[in-house]
Every structure is written in structure tokens, then in C-alpha cells.
């Protein structure tokens, strides 16, 4: 009899667990990530050269957790937590708490940079009319810049308008953001509108610092993909406005990329940076050939300007694993000192470098 009662108790517990599992089936949670490690080399005019291990030559190394839950009536909820790390030494990517320079890197254990969900940390509600997303995420004007870069704005080949941008702290991501995203039912049109906050006390001289907006609208149909974006962030030292136009064309045997980008810093800073990127990717079965030409400069001081030429090759071993090689060279003028892969060069000198690596998705 005692054993019989225990069996009834075990059956009840098992039934409760199965009921909980059945309810949890309406949600979908997954772990995902990417690891990219490479061998880097750089050299610069009048400076020492170096060979070292590096990271993120083809894609940004990251891992994260994401999930969705059906709410019925065409609605759902989702979350996305994603962090970036350096595969050659295990350190994490710095985040920013307030879209200002004083909200920078958060120290980890031992004083080094620990892992954060600094790439993205958002929660969303999806409906037939679109998505409302809140948290830390890419800014819309960054998405326009990255779309037109054949090297996905990473590695030694990343376009010069990305590397040298004067777009400030929110040039890539913003914290404390709320955004609206067009639904798939918008057809060939896509886009988003975002607002973000610096979270300073009212009445202070810097009360609006880190507060801004970012918007983007695009059209993607057939071989043509064009988009325009603008971000505007307030700072006591001068508001920063970033504007860009990007256009892609898929000719089948080759995909063409182009963009014009402009960053304007208002008074009292009062200077402007602008540039362009042109590129092509030729897919050849499991292989890809890449070419990028880009330039970025500003009207500050002697009007520094940097031009970059980059070549790349990718061999896809599978859908998840690829080998790659990228070579780039920059030339400087107007007092510019841009160098590649962490090298240092004198003003108006040149620099070259390459990445040899492997990328694996999981």
C-alpha cells in the first residue's frame, strides 16, 4: 500500500512536469554564435611591422540567446541577448550605458573587460502592423553603412567611412532605445525609426547629451536594393548628424555595392566628415572574390583624408565554416594617420595589412 501511494505521487509529479513542458512548447529558445580567429600582419611607412593573432576578420565573434513566444492573433513576443568577444584572448566587447563617452567600458573580473551583452539586448512585441523593440541595438544609420560594405565593416578590409567615422558614440549602437520596425507585409519596403536617451538629469548643461533618433527607409525588389538613413544625437559639444545613401545591385555573376556617407558635427565643434565606398563580390560556387574602394575625410584642420583599397577571398568549406584571406592598403593625406591592424604610422604615410583566418557558425 505504501509503495502504491508513492507510485500515485510520482505519477502526479510526472503529469505536472509534462503539462509544464507542453505549455513551454509555445516558446522557442535557442543558443547561437560565431567564432572568427585569424593571423594578422601589418606594416607601415617608417614604422615597425608585426605579425600577431587576431579576431573578427570576416565576421564579428559573438554568442547569444534568443527566443520567441506566440501570443495568438498574429502577435508574438521575443527577446535577444547577444555579446561579442575577442577569440584570440577571450576578452569581451565594451558596451556603453548612456550613449556618451563617460558611459564607456565596464571592467570585468581582475579589471579587464568582461563579457557583456553589448551587441544587442532587446525585448520585442511583434504584430501584423510591425515590431516594437526596446533595449540596446544597432542604430539605423549604422545598418545603412554596413549594408554597403562588402567586408561587413570588420577586419582589415572594413570600409574607411566605417573605420574613420566621426559619428560619435552611437555610430554603431545605442543604449536606452525604443524602436519601430516595418513588418514583412510592407512588401519591398523596409525600415525602422528609433529613439534613444542619454538619461541625464534635467536642468544640467549636458541634460540632452546622448539623446537622439535614427531612421531608415529602404526598397528591396529584384536585383535592386536602395536605402537612405539619418541619425541625429544631441551633445553640448555639438550635435552629430549622420546621413547616408546606399545602393546594391545583384547582377548574378557579381553583386555591386555603393554608398555615400556624411557626418556633421554642429557648433561649437563645427566640422564635417564625408566619404564613399564602392565594392563588388563575385560568387564562384564555394568561393567568393571581394573588392572594395573607399575614402573618408574631414574639413577639420589640414583636411585629413584616407583612401583604402581592399581585396578578399573566401572559401566556404560548408554552410557553417569558411576560410578567408583579406589584404588592404591605405594612403593618407592632409595630416591623416590611419593605419591597419593596430599599426602606427606617421602623418601622410601609408600602411598595409592582411588577415588569414577561419570562421565557424554554431
A few lines on this structure:
With 362 residues, this protein is mainly beta.
Itemize the secondary structure elements and their pairings.
Blueprint: H1 2-24, E1 27-44, E2 50-55, E3 62-72, E4 75-84, E5 120-127, E6 130-138, H2 140-147, H3 160-163, E7 173-181, E8 189-196, E9 212-221, E10 224-233, E11 240-250, E12 255-265, E13 271-284, E14 287-298, E15 305-316, E16 321-333, E17 350-361
What share of residues are in beta strands? over 45%
Tell me the total number of β-strands. Answer: 17
**Main sheet summary:** 16 strands, antiparallel, barrel
Strand arrangement in the largest pleated sheet = 1-3-4-5-6-7-8-9-10-11-12-13-14-15-16-17
Uncertain runs: 1-25
Molecular structure report:
The chain is mainly beta and 362 residues long. It has three helices and 17 strands. The protein has helices spanning 2-24, 140-147, 160-163, and strands at 27-44, 50-55, 62-72, 75-84, 120-127, 130-138, 173-181, 189-196, 212-221, 224-233, 240-250, 255-265, 271-284, 287-298, 305-316, 321-333, 350-361. It has a 16-stranded antiparallel β-barrel with strand order 1-3-4-5-6-7-8-9-10-11-12-13-14-15-16-17. The radius of gyration is 24 Å and the shape is globular. The model is unreliable at 1-25 (pLDDT under 50).
